[in-house]
Specification:
Blueprint: H1 3-29, E1 45-53, H2 59-66, E2 71-80, E3 86-89, E4 101-104, H3 109-144
Antiparallel strand pairs: 1-2, 3-4
Helix pairs in contact: 1-3
């Protein structure tokens, strides 16, 4: 396996976790948003990942040596929560319906914060893998001097 392939795999993981973190931050920022331009409350979003062949100039060599392809990750889609919004009785709220209920997004800030910490740790793990590959490449170059 090429050390440069490791960089491609870790890079795809970092890009995917960055996209996940952006969506989680958007969910947290809109946890109390009751009115959107589309109408109704904000809809929680989730990122769906899928594996894909890692971009590499050495992929044909790897395929022959590993009997398969080196896989990375990418964001397949961002899905919107289609469940009914949470209804709270707040008769004085400007977005209250005729019965006094307000529709709020189904966002659990504690759950999204834990997911955000998880995304940050996975991003850091990919950074550590890139650093290790970079150190190995640097040591290889030092040996060739």
């Amino acid at each position: 396996m090429s050390l440069f392939s490791l960089l491609a795999v870790s890079g795809s993981g970092m890009a995917a976790q960055r996209a996940r973190a952006e969506v989680l931050v958007e969910n947290l920022a809109n946890a109390e948003t009751t009115r959107t331009p589309e109408g109704g409350p904000y809809r929680r979003k989730d990122v769906v990942f899928e594996s894909r062949p890692a971009p590499s100039s050495f992929s044909s060599l790897l395929r022959s040596e590993l009997d398969g392809t080196l896989m990375g990750v990418e964001v397949a889609e961002v899905v919107e929560d289609n469940r009914e919004p949470e209804r709270r009785y707040l008769p004085g709220h400007p977005d209250a319906d005729e019965q006094g209920y307000v529709a709020f997004p189904r966002v659990n800030p504690a759950e999204d914060m834990v997911d955000l910490l998880n995304a940050a740790r996975q991003y850091e793990a990919n950074v550590a893998a890139i650093s290790a590959a970079k150190d190995m490449i640097h040591r290889s170059l030092d040996l060739l001097r």
